Amino acid sequence: MHQEPGLAKPDSQRDPRIDFLDPSRPEASDMQRIQAHGATNPSTTDKYERYWNVFRHYCEANSWDPYVFSIELATLFAAFMSKRVNQKTAAPIASIDCYFSALNRYYLIRHDTQPWSHGRMAELKTAFKRAQTQKAGEMHLPNAGLRIAVPPAIVQNILDDASTARGQAMSPRSSRLDHSDSDLRLAWYAVFLLQLLFLFRADTIAGVVDAANQITISAGRLTFEVRRLKRGGANISPFTRSIPIPTNSSHPRARAATIIATALKLKTAQGQPLLGPALWGSTPSKVSDKISIAMETHLIKPCATGCTQPSGIPPESFISSHSWRKAGASAIATFADFLKLRRWGMWKSITAPILYIDDRYSVDPMMTALFDWIDQPVGLADIPERHQYTDSQCVDDGIDQQEIKKANKSDHISHALQRGH
Prior knowledge:
Layout: H1 28-36, H2 42-61, H3 71-81, H4 97-111, H5 120-138, H6 152-168, H7 181-198, H8 202-205, H9 211-214, E1 215-218, E2 221-226, E3 239-244, H10 252-265, H11 277-280, H12 287-305, H13 323-333, H14 338-345, H15 365-370, H16 401-418
Antiparallel strand pairs: 1-2, 2-3
Helix pairs in contact: 2-4, 2-16, 3-5, 6-7, 6-10, 7-10, 7-12, 7-13
């Protein structure tokens, strides 16, 4: 029988008469609703199943029992996985953490143990990340270990260039495709600044479906209605985050608010707000890639020919969508209380923000000004746990989808045979 980690019990407590995953059962929809509130998110459960199948097929190919743990097996599997590449970037996968989390889940179901963490396993995960980062650097390919926070110079370039873009934007266009580069550039600048100011992930930006009502500027405040935190967590109760806008129009945060306000007025030829799905598409899982591509188009390439100042990105490093969250965290950490950073970043774990802080991030007056409000007792209301980012390191690594499909197909065939089909 197919194993479901989400709410499953160890095998010894399973009822072989019950097909737990039959979608045709009358209880199926309600069971999915219950699972959505379980300890493991359904989308994570699906991912764990894919990762388990990769491990299981590796063990079977070597005639090993996947349920017998040893440090030797863990090390060999890590070496095996080190050759895999991310389909999107063609770079070596950055981490083995999610695979080990998946294996822990399956061992917990079968043996009520979690041997794939702590101690020597923690050392192995760290060694894997360092080795993969080194490999990616030698191959001149992106890797999460090489991703850095957006340098202050790039943020300054956005603020400086936006005035030119505003002057060219908002003119009538005959079609959506006729929008000038300045229109698109200004809209993307607004997205970048929203991510930076609010420390948002791309998943939260993907939750913007009605920008006019979700992003507002009034009474001296910039307010964002959050409808989405992470993939698999789209059905949260909406809540707002708000920051004050200085009255001094030359203040960096006031300049950022002006850029966002202008972008909110941009429309497509069909009358849709450009700042929204018209800009980044209707598929939430692809918004991160769209933002990263826009960063390359509107920030990196222009600086290759001329900016107000160099980008500040070392040759062996790169920036992508998640770099805005790292930049905000790193900037705030240069002057503000750590607990305030955690609350503003909506991190569930007290240790998670540490992963985002770059100790080498420059103390820049402009970046400090963007977040100087954080020491004020406004806008930092406690956020319920359901409205916090878990910031799991478990992300899709672009593993060969054909192998996943092959593994799942064999499971479905076996499952069908067990049911007598």
